[in-house]
Design brief:
The chain is of the alpha+beta class and 266 residues long. The chain has 6 helices and 12 strands. The strands form 3 sheets. Strands 4, 5, 7, 10, 11 and 12 form a 6-stranded antiparallel β-sheet that branches. A hairpin with a 2-residue loop joins strand 8 and strand 9. The chain is elongated and about 65 Å long.
């Protein structure tokens, strides 16, 4: 539905495309079994920004149905078997390796994957600008005294004038450029296209932030609209939508302009 390929998911999660394809096709005999399968499902769900617990529950239901119909010979109960009998394989005709060895190998793979992913991110984007919400409040408070000192003295009650409407928000700079800061309240998948160039496509962890600067516009998409907050030049923008709602908008110097109809994930 989102146009994300198995290769992109495999690169982000470090899970082989063969295992991902086996999950999607419910070919459970091609998976290592035990807690590894659940770990694959959680990593797959986390990258797409969907409910991990629900995904694991759906996987267990599909596995039980496959075992009942005879399409899956390997049961999850094998994980609780005695150590000398608890052997797992990636292929039925491959070497049999104890689960303890698989666990050590998985830890090594995860550490290497994290190091490679971090290095690639820094090489492509440089050091991220982690700026918290209090920074926006500080920026506003610094500008407040200037407007207060230049405000005219209040007129007598008899000469009071009706309040004037507020002026529309103006671009932060003369050339119309602006900054957009995205803050994730919960882990979710986001897409950022700045002036036609993709700046980010992946999962933004809870409490993490991403800031970009645009000359014309930013196309922003979130897998969970209620999980993100947007700040344009330090000013908060309206919430995009509800929980588990996919939402895409275009943001210009004048604010949010709706781009696509929202829809809830199944």
């Amino acid at each position: 539905m989102r146009g994300i390929s198995l290769e992109e998911i495999a690169e982000a999660t470090k899970i082989g495309t063969r295992a991902l394809r086996a999950l999607e096709e419910q070919d459970f005999d091609k998976l290592p079994g035990g807690i590894f399968n659940k770990g694959f499902v959680r990593a797959y769900s986390r990258y797409l920004g969907i409910d991990e617990e629900q995904a694991v529950a759906d996987y267990m239901a599909a596995l039980s149905e496959a075992q009942a119909s005879g399409r899956a010979a390997r049961a999850e109960a094998e994980a609780s078997a005695p150590a000398e009998k608890n052997l797992g394989t990636l292929d039925d005709d491959g070497p049999r390796v104890p689960h303890l060895a698989w666990g050590a190998l998985a830890v090594v793979v995860l550490v290497l994957a994290a190091a490679v992913a971090g290095g690639r991110y820094l090489w492509r984007h440089g050091w991220p600008q982690w700026r918290r919400a209090p920074a926006a409040a500080t920026h506003t408070s610094r500008r407040a005294p200037a407007s207060a000192t230049t405000a005219p003295a209040p007129a007598p009650a008899s000469a009071a004038t009706p309040p004037q409407p507020k002026a529309a928000a103006q671009p932060a700079t003369a050339d119309g450029s602006f900054t957009l800061r995205v803050r994730a309240k919960k882990s979710t998948w986001v897409l950022l296209i700045v002036d036609g160039k993709r700046e980010m496509s992946g999962t933004l962890a809870a409490d993490a932030e991403k800031e970009v600067r645009a000359q014309r516009r930013v196309v922003f998409k979130a897998g969970n609209a209620a999980a993100v907050e947007l700040f344009q030049d330090g000013r908060p923008l309206p919430l995009l939508g509800e929980e588990q709602q996919v939402r895409q908008v275009t943001i210009t110097a004048q604010g949010i302009r709706p781009e696509a109809k929202s829809k809830k994930t199944e």
